[in-house]
Amino acid sequence: MIQNFITGQTILLIIGIMLLIGLVAGSYPSFVLSSFMPIMVLKGTAKSSKGGTYLRQVLVVLQFSLTIALLAGTIIVYFQMNHILDKDLGFDKERMLILDYNYDEAVNDKREVLKTEMEANPAILSAAFSRSVPGSYFPNAGTEIQTADGEMKMEVQPIFQVGMDFIPHYNLELVAGRSYSRDHPSDTLGGIVINEAAAKQYGYTNPADIVGKKYSQWGREGEVIGVVKDFNFISLHRNIEPLTLPLEPYACRYLSLK
Asked: Within this chain, do residues 104 and 173 fall inside the same structural domain, yes or no?
């Protein structure tokens, strides 16, 4: 925070640095001028030493090198920032407020009431609970999903435990199947949504083919009900990893408000 940066110590440090730079910058011309003999300069007999000539050449080259480096660095940072700001992350991040209540049981027990009260405020478009949000901590889970040949295949991948409304709240695009719905009570017991990368991990190039397949994860069993388009839930330096998004409201930590 800017108020934490502007303190008496930092102000004194900045003033001290400015004085030091001024002193160093003014010392060199002073020493050089004091070494000149006015009579020889006026007669035109003063000559520069080889050491002085080399020093000037080195300083000119250093100045141009630093200028080029600063310009290149500025251009690189400019394009990197544009990439970060314009990159389609695959989810809605605009006007999103994330509240971390650290698994408070009192909050989780009243999550539906809180959601209703929050969305009653005209300034709030929607609210959703989850254990993880893009860019935050997430665990990994061993997940068995039925392959095309009917065998149960075990893979380990990241897991986002989410509330009922997480997928539409973050505007995650469904490429196959459906999202969780209160119209399907069985979703709370056995439905699961995964991403495209997870579908490919189990051998399905067409996401629609994995919908309806059996799965088992952390004691839960049921079937895959939907596949969301891959979205960047980790650093842009890394490829999008396989991800499962099981419905788990009781282990939530975050309340996301749009």
From this structure: yes
